[in-house]
Amino acid sequence: MGTEGADFRVIAGRYRLEARIGRGGMGVVWRASDQLLGRLVAVKELLPDDSLPDDDARRRRDRTLREARAVAQLRHPHIIVVHDVVEHEERPYLVMELVEGGSLADRIARDGPADAAEAARIGIALLSAVHTAHEAGVLHRDIKPANVLIEAGTGRVVLTDFGIAQVAGATTLTETGSFVGSPEYTAPERMSGVRTGPESDLWSLGALLCTVLSGESPFRRDSIGGILHAVVAAEIRPPVEAEPLLPVVRGLLERDPDRRLGAADAERMLRAYLETGRTPEAPGTAGTAGGGRGHHRIGGGRTPRPGTGGRTTGSRTGCRPGSRTAGAAAPYSPTQPDLPHGPPLPPAGSEPSAAPESRTARRGVLIAAVLVAALAGAGVSAALLLHGNGDGGGGSPGGTATSPATGTGSTGTGTTGTGTSPTSPSPSPAPSTPSKVTNSHTAPSGYRTAQDPAGFSLAVPEDFTRSPQGERVFYLSPGETFRLGIKVAESRPGGPQGVLERSAAEGPDTNPGYHDGRVTRTTHAGHPAALWEFTWDGFSTAEGPRHTYDLCWEDSGRLYDVWVSAPVGKVREAREYFDVALDTFSVTAS
Questions:
Q1: Domain containing residue 566: CATH number
Q2: How many domains, the chain?
Q3: Are 258 and 128 within one domain?
Q4: 507 and 546 part of one domain
Q5: Burial (CB count within 10 angstroms: exposed 0-12, middle 13-18, buried 19+), residue 321
Q6: Where is the composition biased (Pro residues) (predicted)?
Q7: Which of 94, 181, 242, 300 is most open to solvent, judged by the fewest CB atoms within 10 Å of its CB?
């Protein structure tokens, strides 16, 4: 490593700082030698911040000392060992075991996502660690890949940086209205300030598992406002790579902390996966109606993930990709790439004893309070955030579509537009004529509004080109990696659900290697709709496996169909293109 970043100071007459090896939550981490015991250690130094008032500086110092006291009482092979706490020239230093090896974040950045077995191994270690910490009354409160070390040679998983840990009974660390933690991995109840408990660490572990499996948190967005909205209100979509461990991921990402999967149960389920290759359902989810596989619900009374059949009864729901269900309708709520465009959707499928209106109102107020408080310091307009337009949907759904074959039809760029100012959607006209809808959302950054000659408009990525193929219109990315398709047709028997179920029945004939297909009844902009999602092998070996999202809806006697097909490794981008297309879709001609 040489002498770059070297300090060679000796602190407390004992620890010689030799080289800077990283930066923790509140300071610099040094490789050091313990000259008394003759061993290498890691020393975390709290750096001063001259811009802070004396009271805030003292609170930071106290926080570091609290970290030492919290972690020093823990003994676990997957929790960093704290050897000593010293002060030198009125600055505190935390002396810890030296773990040779980088962080989990470094590993993901270098080697990419891990497979399900490795993710399960990491998850087991961390669940065991937090269970021990929680039993001792210690909360970590900042679990993320950067705070997990992977020891070189042994692969030992070590949870570190309890820099914002809270010992049960200690004063909360959200002083002066500041938010302590990493938003992408922070539980919704912590965002709201309602509560902070062991369950919040378990949510963070659920998001971390998704990152290990897919390369990024499912709550990553382009802005702090987008992240907060994704955590608190938007539909939760675990990555497709999480499918082998889905019962655990869904259980940990349960928005209701009282229904969240516990550490012991999650660890048991992951161990079962390593032993059998199958992840059992969470306790209490077996034996559901139909006698089949148990279900687990994400969101505790909130909008279910597409593909769960819209089931939002008291039992936990959520089915393995591949099942085909058609439960009660639930609104389709797209994940926005940035700021939410409108007020939160009301919770779907409230339990019979609940009062949906009051629960909706309370949840809307809670979300508003969370976002306004968190965004005030970030300079984000509360008016823009909370009084946006529409309900997340652009046109009216329906249609027939399979994943499109690549084509060589004429290519054009479409017409670029800026969209109109946000407006509330107008009432639907009489059923005899199609709705004449004004585009309610401008194209997000990186997109353009395509005014299609087929009689509709929508936002597509700037580099997508138009390619009409018969009655279908495609917008294709360079190299046709992503294929966005649109079809408008007359209403057909069975409506959107029937149309997509018939297409799904023909899936093996139209999409080579078709598997894990599911059609879910839902709604879009208040209109009957169905969502079809499936995976297939692609049209050639070179193209490789692909995944398709397809939403079909019916409005005023016409069916509208929008779908996106993409490589299985690029489903996050595909889902964003899909959601933006639906959110900005408008009918422009009768």
A1: 3.40.1000.10
A2: 3
A3: yes
A4: yes
A5: middle
A6: 340-349
A7: 300
CATH number assigned to the domain comprising residue 163: 1.10.510.10
Is residue 179 included in any domain, yes or no? Answer: yes
The amino acid that residue 499 corresponds to is: V
> Which ranges of the chain have pLDDT less than 50?
1-5, 171-178, 286-366, 368-369, 372-440
The residues facing 565 across adjacent strands are: 483, 548
Distance of alpha carbon 88 from alpha carbon 61, whole angstroms: 13
> Could you tell me the CA-to-CA distances from 543 to 214, 403, 538, 567 in Å, in that order?
20, 14, 6, 8
Which residue, of 283, 304, 329, is where some domain finishes?
283
* Assigned token pair, 83: 């050897």
Residue burial 5-29, b: 16+ Cβ < 10 Å; e: rest = eebeeebeebbbbbebbbebbbbbb
Counting every residue written for the chain, the total comes to 590
- Domain closes at, from 283, 316, 336: 283
Annotated binding site: 44
- Name 371's Cβ contacts closer than 8 Å, sequence gap at least 6: 225, 228, 229, 232, 382, 385, 386
Whether 327 maps to a domain, the answer reads: no
Tell me the per-residue pLDDT of 459-512, one tens digit each, with 9 for 90 and over: 999 999 999 988 899 999 998 899 999 999 998 889 999 999 999 999 888 888
- Examine the domain organization and report whether 124 and 258 are in the same domain: yes
Please indicate, yes or no, whether residues 85 and 124 belong to a single structural domain of this protein. no
Between the alpha carbon of residue 230 and those of residues 2, 297, 530, 571, the distances in Å are 44, 17, 23, 17
- Detail the residues annotated as belonging to a binding site for ATP: 44
> Whole-angstrom Cα distance, residue 3 to residue 180?
34
At residue 533, the pLDDT reads 92
Give the whole-angstrom CA distance, residue 77 versus residue 166. 21
Q: Establish if 358 belongs to a structural domain.
A: no
Instruction: State the Cα–Cα distance between residues 421 and 199, nearest whole angstrom.
Output: 42
Determine phi and psi for 311, rounding to 5 degrees. Answer: -80, 120
- Could you tell me the residue range of the domain that residue 18 belongs to? 10-97
